[in-house]
Each structure stands twice: as C-alpha cells, then as structure tokens.
Design brief:
By secondary structure, this protein is mainly beta. Helix content is 4%, strand content 55%. A four-stranded antiparallel β-sheet has the order 1-6-3-4, with no helix packed on it. Strands 5-2-7 form a three-stranded antiparallel β-sheet.
Length: 97
C-alpha cells in the first residue's frame, strides 16, 4: 500500500487537506495521526467510490481541543492509482482560540 508520512515541526491540534481523485479507485484511504507523547488515532476517510471517474474532491480534517499531534500517515489501500493532496493547513492550540 502506498503511504505518505508528514511530520510537523511543531505539534498541531488541527490539520486539514483537500484530496483529489480519491473516488476513481475502489480502495480505502486512511489517516493515522500520531499523538504527542505517544499513541495514535486512525480515521477512515469517507469518499464516494466512483470507479473510473476522475476529478473527485474530498475535504478532510480534524480539530482537537485536547491532544496535539507530531505527525500523520496517509495510506491508500489500492496500488493501482494515486491521489492528490492540496490546500493543506494546520494550527496549534494557541492559533485555534
């Protein structure tokens, strides 16, 4: 499975992105966020599985007012295609207030 890891230079409390072409393959996209100090949470990214159609766009993100995160791992379960990641953003707890 293709995976991408993004490490944050400063722990973040929020992270978001737009994902293109997630719906043109019959696979699952997951995001695992690694908590500062240990532990992680894995999310299944919901998207329309529209096999054969290009051009889908999905917005995904989290905001956590308790924990912070050092990195995230994006995993695509299908090796036959790729997705694009655009318009990423992140924020610390101080920036969320």
């Amino acid at each position: 499975d293709p995976t991408t890891t993004i490490a944050f230079s400063t722990p973040v409390a929020a992270f978001w992105f737009e994902m293109t072409d997630a719906g043109d393959f019959l696979g699952q996209v997951t995001v695992k966020v690694n908590k500062t100090g240990g532990g992680s949470v894995t999310y299944n990214v919901t998207h329309t599985k529209d096999s054969g159609k290009s051009g889908t766009l999905v917005f995904w993100g989290i905001v956590d007012d308790t924990d912070t995160y050092d990195s995230m791992v994006l995993d695509v379960s299908n090796n036959d295609d790729t997705i694009g990641i655009d318009r990423c953003g992140m924020a610390t707890h101080a920036q969320l207030v």
